[in-house]
Amino acid sequence: MHDNTDEFRDRPVAVFGAASGIGRAAALAFAARGARVAAFDVNAALLNGLADEMRAAGAIQALTAAADVRDSASVGPALQKAAGELGGLDHMIFTAGILRVGFLADMSERDFDDVFAVNMRGFWVTMRAALPLLQGGPARRRAVTAISSAAAIRPKASSGAYAASKAALSHLVRVFSVELAASGITVNAIAPATVDTPMVAPYMGPATSNHGYRLTGTSPMGRIAQPADIADACLFLSSAASSYITGITMPVDGGSTAALPAS
Fold it and tell me: What does the alpha-carbon distance between residue 81 and residue 193 come to, in Å, rounded to a whole number?
């Protein structure tokens, strides 16, 4: 069994969408393994205290900064400044995402465009900024992990734009992985189902109050995912144990997309 307890020590890691949920859990997971972590979010106020939490968890170095993944003029300088302070960039975790629900015919153009701007285009913008900093040759482990969704595998009515944006993100991951394969940089995605995060909290009620949208909810394993479950998968896809894995969208969903449960 591979032990990644020390392999992230002193390694520079950037996490986007780190103010809450999966991103915050990922930042703290790398921090607990002695990494140098830069945590970014569009909402800088929500990052208050996170640097102290990361240092308390064990980060050798921790910093936070505002960055809007929709805007290359925001992401590029923020990431370059952080890499300068951390001593480079070895791993990038992209967890930024938004959810808008409703029937496709009723969704506003603004909501549709916002979902794609963050969930899909935001990943592309962030990758373009990260790639010059990640380059270092195959001798040093370099990895990018993005958060896709079970919706990319099994879409639902009333969240069609979200599902399409995550499917598009997964395809970007596939193509990036091949285009970057010779560099030794791996690019993968994780597809969670319902995760206990602030993003899904407003939709925990009955579907009738959510424009018909229904969370996947409890998995066949008997619970919904916690952010730490997904953070652990981020660690794996950044570790040496996954060095020959690239271009995948890996379900981490307690079996939710494996088969429909018995009724």
Answer: 34
Q: 58 burial class (0-12, 13-18, 19+ CB within 10 angstroms)? A: middle
Q: Which long-range contacts (CB under 8 A, 24 or more apart) does 205-208 make?
A: 207/158
Query: b/e per residue, 236-248, with b = 16+ CB within 10 A?
Result: bbbbeebeeebbb
Q: Which token pair is 97?
A: 């995402």
Residue given tokens 């639902």 in the structure block: 156
12-252, CATH topology level: Rossmann fold (3.40.50)
Lowest mean pLDDT among 37-46, 168-177, 187-196, 228-237: 187-196
Catalogue the E-assigned strands of the chain.
12-16, 36-41, 61-66, 91-94, 142-147, 185-192, 249-252
Instruction: Indicate the pTM of the whole model.
Output: 0.91
* 162 classed as catalytic: yes
CA distance 159 to 137: 40
Q: What tokens were used for 52?
A: 């102290």
Question: Distance between CA 94 and CA 144 in Å, rounded?
Answer: 8
If pLDDT is split at 50, 70 and 90, which confidence band does 258 have? confident
Percentage of the chain with pLDDT > 70? 87
> Hey, where are the domains in the chain?
12-252
Query: Do 250 and 189 touch, CB atoms closer than 8 A?
Result: yes
The model's pLDDT over 176-188, given as tens digits with 9 standing for 90+, comes to: 999 999 999 999 9
